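Researcher: Here's a chain I'd like modeled. Treat it as a single chain, no partners, no ligands.
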Amino acid sequence: MAISPVPAPQPQVTERRATVRDVPAMFRLINHWADQRQMLPKALHTLCNTVRDFWVAEESGEVVGCCGLRIYTEDLAEVCSLAVAPGKQGRGIGQSLVKCCHGEARAMGIRRVFALTYQVAFFERLGYRIVDMDSLPEKVWRDCVNCPFLDNCNETAMIRELGA
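Model: Modeled as a single isolated chain. Structure tokens:
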């Protein structure tokens, strides 16, 4: 009788607030997927200016994921810049990061979160539904008007009610 080897346990992934030391890793993750046309790129200075909006997932001292929460109104925030390292998808890292953002939004009293995404099925599994971009004028007038893809945007707008 052959004995199967016991698979090595996966290193533990922990989520925490991002720090300025995480910005270079966040920049690499986000722009890796932007190069694959899976998300929009972010400039290093933009990430430095918005680092307080971000959560990171860390495994064995390495940042393997990031996700931001941008506040638009007292009732609306965006889950943005969700990126998980190549080869690390499918382990719940992205889902955990989004849930960190949801928890933060709830703690602030924000009842609705949205995402602009190419990953519709992922966000549907987290309770988001597709909406028309026109239902998010806060996003359009704050960010989209300056986007080079404004007239040819192929991201899907999705929203989730957080409840109590």
